[in-house]
């Protein structure tokens, strides 16, 4: 693994401090608040430590309640809701400064045979030859706000290569559809749960901004207040985060200062391995001047 990927794996490997209680470190990506993907990945990690390894997480539904502080650790409290014959349910609460900042429910299941169908993977250019988000950021480094610049141009643990490149500093209205390839920046061990922690982490990148595309605005504009409100993730099959995955995103609706976006994640073989949905705040600030 690369150093940045090794650091991310360590970030998602929580410290047990008491039965059903875990401590996680934080990572500052330069945003105004803690990156939601970190909390998602750490929640899956916490819940997985209380479940038999033969049961794999297949769904997560959560709400972001308060902004997190990227300079402080988090406590994760796991509630063992149910251990059934086929399914296990866990509820996880992320706590900072004595307050809940995120809460979610997760379901785990034994592997079973059953009916199977899925949509066809979209036909888009492959990742080979596409520039990464980091390479694109280095081309416009002078325009990136100072608090974000160092992180934006440095090596990342998750490599993201957009199929269609949009200029966030001069956004133009366009169709609310986005395709990006992503993968871990290095090889990973054969630990299925680890790949799912990392998928939960990466699933929060790019999704909500898809809902902003028809309106010609971006997160870099000072008059925009953007934040995730909830997040749902369904994992349909085992996957490898160290091989390319296609994230196909679209936004069917926005209104009332909220945007809704959904995503389908495919592996290189065209198998649908996960589905994602998220609603977020896309508010015009009245006090930005």
Throw out a few tags for this protein:
alpha+beta; 289 residues; single chain; 13 strands; globular; 5 helices
Plain-language structure description:
With 289 residues, this protein is an alpha+beta fold. The protein is 17% helix and 37% strand. The protein is built from 5 helices and 13 strands. The chain has helices at residues 3-12, 36-48, 133-139, 146-153, 192-202; strands at residues 15-18, 21-24, 56-64, 74-83, 87-96, 99-109, 158-162, 177-184, 224-228, 230-235, 245-255, 258-267, 272-284. Strands 1, 2, 3, 4, 5, 6, 7, 8, 9, 10, 11, 12 and 13 form a 13-stranded antiparallel beta sheet that branches. A hairpin with a 4-residue loop joins strand 12 and strand 13. Helix 2 runs antiparallel to helix 5 (192-202). The longest helix is centred in the first third of the chain and has 13 residues, at 36-48. The protein is globular, with a radius of gyration of 18 Å. The termini are far apart. The mean pLDDT is 95.
Specify the structural class: alpha+beta
Largest sheet: 13 strands, antiparallel
- Total count of strands: 13
List the total number of helices. Answer: 5
Can you lay out the helices and strands and say which pair or pack?
Layout: H1 3-12, E1 15-18, E2 21-24, H2 36-48, E3 56-64, E4 74-83, E5 87-96, E6 99-109, H3 133-139, H4 146-153, E7 158-162, E8 177-184, H5 192-202, E9 224-228, E10 230-235, E11 245-255, E12 258-267, E13 272-284
Antiparallel strand pairs: 1-2, 2-4, 3-6, 3-10, 4-5, 5-6, 7-8, 8-11, 9-13, 10-13, 11-12, 12-13
């Amino acid at each position: 693994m690369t150093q940045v990927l090794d650091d991310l794996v360590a970030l998602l490997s929580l410290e047990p401090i008491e039965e059903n209680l875990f401590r996680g470190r934080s990572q500052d990506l330069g945003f105004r608040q803690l990156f939601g993907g970190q909390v998602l990945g750490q929640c899956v990690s916490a819940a997985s430590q209380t479940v038999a390894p033969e049961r794999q997480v297949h769904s997560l539904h959560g709400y972001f309640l308060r902004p997190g502080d990227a300079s402080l650790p988090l406590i994760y409290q796991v509630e063992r809701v149910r251990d059934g014959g086929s399914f296990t349910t866990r509820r996880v609460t992320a706590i900072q400064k004595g307050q809940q900042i995120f809460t979610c429910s997760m379901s785990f299941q034994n592997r079973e045979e059953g009916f199977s169908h899925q949509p066809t993977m979209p036909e888009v250019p492959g990742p080979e030859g596409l520039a990464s988000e980091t390479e694109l950021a280095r081309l416009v480094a002078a325009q990136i706000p100072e608090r974000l610049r160092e992180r934006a141009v440095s090596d990342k643990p998750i490599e993201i290569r957009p199929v269609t490149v949009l200029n966030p500093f001069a956004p133009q209205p366009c169709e609310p559809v986005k395709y990006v390839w992503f993968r871990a920046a290095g090889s990973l061990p054969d630990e299925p749960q680890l790949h799912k922690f990392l998928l939960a982490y990466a699933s929060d990148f790019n999704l909500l901004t898809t809902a902003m595309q028809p309106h010609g605005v971006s997160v870099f504009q000072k008059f925009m207040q953007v934040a995730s409100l909830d997040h749902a993730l369904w994992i349909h099959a085992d996957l490898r985060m160290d091989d390319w995955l296609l994230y196909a995103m679209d936004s069917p609706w926005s209104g009332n200062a909220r945007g809704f976006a959904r995503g389908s994640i495919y592996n290189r073989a065209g198998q649908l391995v996960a589905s994602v949905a998220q609603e977020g705040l896309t508010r015009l600030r009245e006090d930005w001047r």
